[in-house]
Every structure is written in C-alpha cells, then in structure tokens.
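okkk here we go again. third time trying to get the zinc ion bound version out, last two times i messed up the smiles copy paste (missing a bracket lol). double checked this time i swear
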Amino acid sequence: MSSTPGTLWLSNATYLNEKRRITVEFSNRETKITKNYDFYPVLFIHKSDSNEKLLDEKINLLGINSFKLLQNKKNIKVIGKNYSKLKELRCYFAKKETFMLEPERQFLLLNGWSYFDLFTLDADIPNKQNMFSFPLLLLEFFESPLDSLITNLRSEDKKAAKQLTNCLLLSNLLAIPFQKVPLKKRHQLEMLIQNSLFLQEKIFPTKDNSNIFISNESVRGRFQNLMELDFSKIWPKVIIKENIGSETNNCACCIPENIYSGNIFPNSLVSVRFLSDAFYYDSRFSDFSNKFHLGNSNKERRLARKAEFLTKNIPIGPFFFGDSYKIPIEDAKILQKEGFAEILPNNNELHWSCRNEKSFLSNAIEMISSKSEKINSNIESYEKIFLHQYKLNALMLLESDLNYYFMKQYSNLLNAIFNKVPNFLLDTKNQYYSKVIAESFRSKQQSLIAEWSEIMKKEGTRIIAIDSFCNKIFIQGEYLTPDFFLKKDILMPICNNHHADFYF
Ligand SMILES: [Zn+2]
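finally!!
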C-alpha cells in the first residue's frame, strides 16, 4: 500500500520530443511524483489556397505519417507526431500565417492546469483543487523551500519578497515556467492573448500599425474638494460585455438591422444634413475631432472657439444649413434629437460587434477576470474563517499568514494587469495591437464617460480631469449616479482619494 502524499503542487512540465510525451512533476516539501502523458502538439496555419497547396507539398516531403490535419473555420490545425516535425514544417510558411506555442504550454492550457496549481492524488490520478495555496516546495534553483524563502524575505526585504511571489503568480497565470516570466506588463498581456488565441484555435489577423489620437483631458487650474475615481476595473467588464475584438468585428452573422441596433459601436459614421447656420458642435470622440480638424479648413476659427468655450475637444464645424457630413453615430443621434441635424438614410460606415462568437480579446480578459473573481472570493472566505476562529487576533494572524499573503498578492497582480489593459490596447508596440480594437475600445470609453458626465452635470457634479487611458477620473461634486452603473450592468468606480486642494 502506498501512503498518500497529501497535497502537491505542479512544479514542472517537460516535453520529451523523442518519446512524444510530457512529464509533469507534482511535489511538496517531502515528495516528488512524476506523471507521463502522451502528447501531440499542434500548429495552426491560416487557411488559404496557397497555404493548402504548400502544406500538401511539404507534408509529402516531411513524411505524411508525421502529421494529421483538421480544419476549422479559418485555420488548418496540424497535429504533429512531435514538436520538431512541426517546427520543420512551420519554417516553410510566413511566420504571420502560422501560430504555435511551446508544447508544455499547449499541454497545460488544454488541461486547464498551470505551474503551482494545487493537486491531490486520488487513486494515483492528479486532481486539481479549486483553491489557491502557497506552494510548499523546493524549486531546484533555490537553496531553501519557497515558504521559508518568502517568509525570510518578508521580514528582510519586502520588495524582493513581492517580486519573487509575483514571478510565482505570473508563472501560474500565464502557464509558463518560473524562469521565463516576462517582467514587462505588455509582454505579460501578450502571453495572455496568446493563450486565448490558442484555446480558441485562432491566428492573430495581420497587425494594423496605425495609431489613434489619445488625449489627456483636464481643465487647468486649482481645484478644491476633488474626488479621484478608479475606473480600471470597469474597462475589462466593458470589453467582455461589448465583445470588443478585431476578428469578430463586422461579422457576417450580426449585420445590424438599422442604426439603432445595440451591437453598433459609437464611433460608426453616419451621414447627417445640418439644419443650422454657422454651426459647431463638440464631439464625444477625441479621435474624430482631431481627424476632422486636421482634414478640414477653418482651423483658426475652431481653435479660437475651443479657447473661448473651453471645450474638451476641438469643435467640429462650421457647417451651414443643408451641408452634409459623416459624423459618429452617437453625435448624430444627439444632434438629431436637438434639431440641429438629420440623419440621412444611406452612406453609413457602421462598425458592429458579434453576438455569436467571443473575440480572442474578450476571451482573454474574461480569463483574467474570472481568475480575479475566484481569488477575491477565496480571500473573503479565508478572512471569514480567521475571524470566526481567532476573533480579535485574526487580523494580526492574517498579516503573517503565507497563504493569505499569496492570495492578496495575486489579487494585486491581477488589478495591476487590469490597470494596464487600456494602455496595452492603445499601444502600437503591443504585438497584438489592432486599430479596430483601439478604436472600438476608445469609442466605448468616451461614450460611457460622456453619458455619465451628462447625468452627473444635472446633479451639479462635473468632471475636472481624465487621464490618458481613462483609468483615473477626477470629479468635483458629490453625486456619482450609482443608478447609471447599475443600469449599464457594470461596477461602480472606486473612490480612491479625496483631494482638498489640487492643481492641474
Ligand atoms: Zn456575429
């Protein structure tokens, strides 16, 4: 009879090319168990006539028995006898036409496993546990077990303790080995996108490098009683809810019936006829304002008007009675309601989201978001247990508890990643940058803030400043209109700080 080793953590995974298998190591401080799994990695190739022809030719060359082909909607999924065969095959194709992850990551993602996940052995079969617990094990490149290492660091060098813990957590989040964790948030988000693409069996569409105009919107001056609100947890929800994406954009299955369909992005352009003379208006969309300004005459008149009326963006105009122009649909609807313009029935440039298929972006954000929810609920129940058991001493004991520290760090890490999402989507350096995503995301941000601002204004609260990525918003006034967020089915922004006196 074998004794049960209790709980174990996934500590390593190694692909053996010749044996065509993955060896997974589960360990704790006393035991190390390895399990072998047969595994055939996959390579995705973009489906096109020329790629299919090339694939046919090269498979014949490399050995027809080494590959198995499966087709999905847009890609050919090539299952290889082993990884090296797939790498050989990949060499014949343009890199952007293919997509392949290292075999260990493929295996872990397909199993829903990752480094430092907690397991029990049930009848000798590893069974992943649905909880987070600090990995009590010895990693080969450290002298002492992780728990004593982190405990010591926490008293000697808090920053180092945090860095090391973050590496463990990122290894878990990204399904990559501890030693390969990238330090830059952009690279971490890129890896999360890769994981999402892989699980959805997609290849990233060709990168469109053109950037969009980003402004930092603040009113200059000295202000009293400002509230600083944090919107960073709202944007991931918006991405998921609106299914923002590039490959799902303007899909064939969800063509809007009319301009009032709910899946139309607010930056879609519609033609309007203006019904007023020497007319200007303030667009909700800074990217559009900027483009209009650069592409039309009367620049000085617009700039003078901006200075006179202290508008957020450069005004759009001047228009005269009967002029027609293509403007963002949300601007058009407001102008029509106010009687300044009428929407013309044709010549629209609509952008819409898909209601049937999740985009790889919203899929990736949802993976982080659900992880964050799970951890926060774990933290909550952990706190409850401590409070129940230790009453007044609970807080002090939690403070030094390693599991609690681990979960809290995870929650912080995921918040930091959320915080980076807007920046990441608008950053052309991002390997998965897409202009379509940048534009749809930005238009949703600006439309939501504009709508919210209108409602708050009626209650005497006004927006004073917005940072470039709309994570931080400074308002003057008390009323936050909770109903607005409730109706939109998104979280309320978090009030971070109250500033008695502030300069911009
Ligand atoms: Zn669709």
